[in-house]
Design goal:
The protein has four helices and seven strands. The chain is α+β, with helices and mostly antiparallel strands. The chain has a four-stranded antiparallel β-sheet, with helices on one face. Strands 1-7-6 form a three-stranded antiparallel β-sheet. It starts with a strand and ends with a strand.
Length: 218
């Protein structure tokens, strides 16, 4: 390969969130393993019933993680020495519910969760539904930026660009999460869910991507 010109192009884009992801964690602690598993099953069914009552399908609630382990507490005995005391079998069921961004629908979901007798821990994030379309636009933007820089550098240097010799791209997954967080402590959860929904406008999602292109110089 003869003379070359290497340019890194960075594409940037800002998109409006149009999708909501509600992460839910259900926990059960019981000293009898079978009882812990049974209660965990009752909890998930109660949660599904509550969500189906407001228009969701059973399969809309997806499991993202399921873990059962023995839990021990560090307690002090009568002599002042600490020892591990078996607390029970802890079952943690992690789930997610996704739907198009709609604050009224989110309020219904929160109300359903708070009245389902499951005492869930929740986390809410706002993202974009069609991530592939955003990725494609980012790549076009990055390539266009690289080409503009290459032409400018070639012109300023008095040379002519030839064919593209190589393109280097990092295929790391991008994070499409709005910086806006919708949170409340567990003791305020039921109060928040029963209140009138607040018209929140999540902040735009800003993402960037890069590509490195090598041109031959004529």
């Amino acid at each position: 390969m003869g003379r070359t010109l290497t340019v890194k192009g960075i594409g940037k884009i800002s998109v409006k969130p149009d999708y909501t992801v509600v992460s839910i964690s259900l926990k059960v602690l019981n000293k009898v393993y079978d009882d812990a598993m049974e209660k965990a099953g009752i909890q998930i069914e109660a949660l599904r019933e509550a969500l189906c009552a407001i228009g969701f399908e059973k399969q809309d609630l997806k499991t993202t993680g399921f873990n059962v382990h023995s839990r021990y507490n560090n307690e002090r005995d009568k002599n002042g020495n600490y020892k591990n005391v078996f607390a029970g079998f802890e079952c943690i069921h992690q789930l997610k519910l996704e739907f198009d961004f709609d604050m009224k629908k989110l309020a219904l979901v929160l109300s359903a969760l708070s009245t389902s007798s499951t005492e869930p821990e929740i986390s809410i994030k706002f993202t974009v539904k069609d991530k592939s379309a955003v990725c494609e636009e980012l790549l076009r933007n990055a390539v266009c930026t690289a080409e503009q820089k290459a032409k400018l550098l070639a012109s300023a240097s008095g040379v002519t660009l030839g064919d593209i010799a190589s393109i280097d791209y990092n295929w790391d997954e991008l994070d499409f999460i709005s910086p806006t967080r919708y949170e409340a402590s567990n003791d305020c959860f039921a109060l928040k869910a029963s209140a009138r929904s607040i018209d929140i406008e999540p902040d735009d999602i800003s993402v960037s991507d890069s590509v490195t292109i090598i041109w031959e110089i004529k």
